[in-house]
């Protein structure tokens, strides 16, 4: 701790000295990875499967992986860390899933049509929108300002053979010099998917509707106001890896934004937003052939929040301040119906109406210290408080913690510094950071949450310390006209690392569970991720891309941590000429030999799958018709990966076709 | 302005005091001392009527908190200076026996109300009925009243009457929590041994082990229960009952004597399932 503090201090000092020199000011380079999702984008950036799910887009990042519990609502992992240790926002808005079993990550409540891009930030570089350990994904909505005036509209449709997925979508908007609006609609309906060798995976169907609207008004040349809403509703969603499905997952995400762009001052942009989102999630076991006891498990999560972000430029400094806060209310309950109908239903709160209030200030400065060197420093301080608002729920937890108070306050801090040096064709980066996070609602206040992957009931622990991360990162880039390479590494030493620990004195509640785990903290855990991205322009129109990712995670007893990827690789070759493109790619994992046996994992074998895609854009009645088609998992490989819940196999061979017709 | 404030306080004070003198006069005839209670029945002799009250208006198998008052038949006034004792008697075809009971004491703060507890170890049936005999003294004169009472069966197991491995007959009765809740409940039971057919005395320094389980959910238990022990000799047994959710719970019991020998009840195992000694709660 002391050493790191000293180093950070030294970094700051050097910044202060560095400030004095210098003259020219260029925009500092972004450290974050950006995945382009939107529809009206330059052809060279166009994705070969434009109606892919948000998760498929995100998975292109070497920092991101997905925990799969079925064909729907995959849970993103950033830098080998799952939901608790990361932040996923939509345009800076905090949203919290309403499912105690993580069946509804934030990404499951949006559609690609809602988004223009996703920014993936590693470690503390992602702390702009709140405290994180592993990093952040900010999904940015389509920004319609400064587009050509008049109407615009696209009709989209798609079909996938493997799960008979039908996709229909529209996107209609209008831009005027003083106002704009845009709406989009997407509908997806899929049957059970088939793993390799035509093996049907029961309970993997889903239906999803997504409706979104944005309307903005330019108050004057400098300022605009914008209201936005996303309504997302999924019904009849199967989770083949879990003992229950979902009858309803519904989100309403609303926001009101005010944007002010001053001219000729130190400030370049000021954006303020207030937002509200509400999520309802209902699990359903009525379609399963045999359940030991029928149960209802609904959950609700409401979040009220705001942020006010000020960006500015002063000499060599590009600075940003973000004051942000949210208030979340999470309730989840469980009602079990005894076989004897005369008996009372068995009821309990699994999330006992936990209120979370957070207010924090983020400050960032990117300084150009010389012609080819940049320093970026950022810090956050936030006040985080939890309260168990329900007396009934509090008394439940007091079974385990008789002296527990309803409220708990924490202060969360972070500090990070990065140094980036460009030298000819090379780019070097080095950074150090410290960050903290509070336990999640489940980790702090969960009550008999059954984990169907390790078969334990989990109990929250309100006395957990903040988790503290010491992070070091390195990057190395080399770029010529034809060749781009990028190597990045992040090392995390996480103190008071929160995991479930077996308590053999407590018996499980769930029928068939192996025991009870209470959330507790390891002294520390270490996580290391490194990835290499290479891109080579083989010839005119030909492009070759490859990626290797290595991850490592150990606890303080030198046991492997769960959900750490074995070596993962992918490569693809693309040919793009005018309106035509074709590509062939492969992706795979080595066998996971360093599985976390202590945490209930078993070995997963290696795999490699091959994909083919092609696309063409035709002119059609003055408009454009774009067709994309492809085959995924060409050889119908039957496989499962380290991050597939209960080793549920992934999709087998799949033919897809995506069609987009520009209406006007 | 200030004067007005003082004046209003004064006026308020007058109003308040005048009210309180009104209510004093009401207390001359303390008819409301039984609020929250429901009359079970009256037992009557030539001189007095003894009224029995419980919270539900019923006597049931198991633990009963009973309130009483005595009305003078000639003056129609309630007696404030009686001393009472009682004997419940079970009349069976071949024998008679009593049951555990407490002394009857004046309810503190009340003028006419007395109370005590009775643990009926069995309900009445077609061939057996309960009688209650109350002896009382008013101004050094002895009176007695006897009448049959109606004791209905409890739909949950709230009392156990059994012979321990030491050959002694025990009665173990559930008392608290009356309204169980999710969380750690303060649990109270009464433990008595039968000295003879008519005499039951509290047992000291034993231990009652509890293991609450939900038979409808794979017989899962709950954490952090504590065994029931006495805090004062002659008193009830107390401990913590942990209930993790609503529904039907079977509280498996084991009775241990002062040398920790099990007198009754079996440890819950997947093989022998519930203990032969248990209570039931449902909420």
UniProtKB/TrEMBL annotation, chain A:
Source species of the chain: Flavobacterium frigoritolerans
GO CC aspect terms: cell outer membrane
Gene Ontology BP annotations: siderophore transmembrane transport
Protein topology in the membrane: Multi-pass membrane protein
Subcellular location: Cell outer membrane
Keyword Membrane part of the UniProt annotation: yes
Alphabetized PANTHER family for the sequence: OUTER MEMBRANE PROTEIN C, TONB-DEPENDENT OUTER MEMBRANE RECEPTOR
Name of the protein described by the UniProt record: TonB-dependent receptor
TrEMBL record, chain B:
Annotated organism of origin: Flavobacterium frigoritolerans
Domain of life (superkingdom): Bacteria
Keyword annotations of the record: Signal
Cleaved signal peptide residues: 1-23
UniProt-recorded name of the protein: YtkA-like domain-containing protein
């Amino acid at each position: 701790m002391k050493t790191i503090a000293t180093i950070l201090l030294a970094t700051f000092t050097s910044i202060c000295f560095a400030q004095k020199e210098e003259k020219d000011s260029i925009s500092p380079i972004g450290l974050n990875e950006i995945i382009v999702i939107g529809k009206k984008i330059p052809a060279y950036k166009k994705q070969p499967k434009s109606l892919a799910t948000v998760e498929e887009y995100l998975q292109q990042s070497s920092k991101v992986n997905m925990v799969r519990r079925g064909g729907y609502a995959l849970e993103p992992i950033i830098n080998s860390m799952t939901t608790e240790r990361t932040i996923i926002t939509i345009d800076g808005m905090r949203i919290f899933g309403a499912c105690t079993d993580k069946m509804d990550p934030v990404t499951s409540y949006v559609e690609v049509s809602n988004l223009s891009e996703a920014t993936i930030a590693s470690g503390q570089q992602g702390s702009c929108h709140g405290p994180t350990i592993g990093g952040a994904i900010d999904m940015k909505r389509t920004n319609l300002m400064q587009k050509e005036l008049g109407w615009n509209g696209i009709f989209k449709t798609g079909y996938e053979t493997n799960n008979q997925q039908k996709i229909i979508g529209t996107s209609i908007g209008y831009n005027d010099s003083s106002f704009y609006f845009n709406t989009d609609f997407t509908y997806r309906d899929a049957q059970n998917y088939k793993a390799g060798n035509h093996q049907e995976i029961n309970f993997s169907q889903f239906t999803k509707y997504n409706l979104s609207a944005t309307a903005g008004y330019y108050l004057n040349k400098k300022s605009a106001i914008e209201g936005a809403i996303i309504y997302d509703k999924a019904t009849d969603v199967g989770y083949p890896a879990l003992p229950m499905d979902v009858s309803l997952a519904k989100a309403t995400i609303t926001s009101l934004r005010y944007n002010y762009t001053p001219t000729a001052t130190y400030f370049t942009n000021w954006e303020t937003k207030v937002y509200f989102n509400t999520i309802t999630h209902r699990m359903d076991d009525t379609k399963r052939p045999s359940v030991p006891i029928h149960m209802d498990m609904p959950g609700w999560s409401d979040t009220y929040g705001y942020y006010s972000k000020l960006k500015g430029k002063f000499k060599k400094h590009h600075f940003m301040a973000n004051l942000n806060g949210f208030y979340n209310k999470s309730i989840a309950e469980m009602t079990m119906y005894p076989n004897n109908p005369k008996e009372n239903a068995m009821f309990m709160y699994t999330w006992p109406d936990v209120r979370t209030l957070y207010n924090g200030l983020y400050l960032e400065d990117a300084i150009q210290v010389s012609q080819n060197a940049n320093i970026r420093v950022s810090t956050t301080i936030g006040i985080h408080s939890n309260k168990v608002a329900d007396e009934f729920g509090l008394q439940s937890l007091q079974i385990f913690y008789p002296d527990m108070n309803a409220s708990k306050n924490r202060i969360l801090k972070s500090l990070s510094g990065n140094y980036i040096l460009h030298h000819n064709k090379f780019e070097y980066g080095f950074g150090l950071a410290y960050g903290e996070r509070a336990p999640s609602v489940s980790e702090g206040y969960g009550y008999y949450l059954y984990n169907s992957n390790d078969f334990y009931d989990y109990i929250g622990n309100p006395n957990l310390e903040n988790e503290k991360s010491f992070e070091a990162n390195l990057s190395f880039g080399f770029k010529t006209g034809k060749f781009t390479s990028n190597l990045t590494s992040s090392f995390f030493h996480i103190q008071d690392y929160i995991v479930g620990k077996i308590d053999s004195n407590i018996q499980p509640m769930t029928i068939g569970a192996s025991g009870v785990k209470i959330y507790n903290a390891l002294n520390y855990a270490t996580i290391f991720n490194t990835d290499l991205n290479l891109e080579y322009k083989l010839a005119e129109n030909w492009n070759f891309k490859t990626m290797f990712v290595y991850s490592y995670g150990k606890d303080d007893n030198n046991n492997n941590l769960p959900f750490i990827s074995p070596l993962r690789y992918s490569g693809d070759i693309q040919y793009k000429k005018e309106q035509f493109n074709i590509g062939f790619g492969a992706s795979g994992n080595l066998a996971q030999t360093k599985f976390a046996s202590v945490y209930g994992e078993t070995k997963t074998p290696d795999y490699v799958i091959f994909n083919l895609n092609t696309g063409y854009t035709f002119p059609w009645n003055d408009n454009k018709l774009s067709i994309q088609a492809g085959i995924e998992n060409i050889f119908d490989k039957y496989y499962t990966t380290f991050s597939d819940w209960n080793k549920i196999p992934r999709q087998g061979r799949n033919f897809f076709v995506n069609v987009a017709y520009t209406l006007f | 302005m200030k004067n007005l404030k003082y004046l209003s306080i004064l006026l308020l004070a007058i109003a308040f005091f005048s009210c309180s003198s009104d209510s004093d006069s009401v207390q001359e005839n303390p008819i409301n001392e039984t609020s929250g209670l429901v009359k079970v029945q009256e037992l009557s002799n030539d001189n007095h009527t003894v009224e029995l009250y419980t919270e539900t208006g019923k006597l049931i198998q198991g633990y009963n908190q009973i309130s009483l008052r005595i009305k003078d038949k000639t003056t129609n006034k309630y007696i404030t200076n009686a001393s009472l004792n009682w004997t419940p008697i079970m009349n069976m075809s071949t024998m008679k026996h009593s049951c555990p009971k407490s002394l009857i004491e004046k309810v503190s703060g009340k003028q006419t109300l007395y109370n005590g507890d009775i643990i009926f170890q069995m309900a009445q049936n077609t061939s057996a009925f309960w009688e209650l005999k109350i002896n009382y003294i008013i101004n050094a004169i002895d009176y007695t009243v006897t009448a049959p009472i109606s004791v209905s069966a409890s739909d949950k197991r709230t009392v156990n009457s059994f012979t321990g491995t030491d050959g002694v007959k025990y009665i173990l009765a559930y008392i608290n929590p009356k309204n169980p809740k999710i969380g750690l409940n303060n649990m109270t039971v009464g433990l008595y041994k039968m000295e003879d057919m008519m005499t039951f005395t509290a047992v000291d320094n034993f231990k009652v082990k509890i293991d609450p389980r939900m038979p409808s959910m794979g017989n899962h238990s709950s954490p952090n229960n504590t065994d029931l022990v006495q805090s004062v000799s002659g008193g009830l047994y107390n401990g913590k009952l942990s209930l993790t959710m609503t529904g039907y719970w079977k509280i498996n019991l084991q009775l241990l004597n002062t040398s920790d020998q099990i007198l009754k009840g079996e440890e819950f195992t997947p093989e022998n399932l519930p203990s032969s000694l248990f209570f039931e709660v449902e909420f």
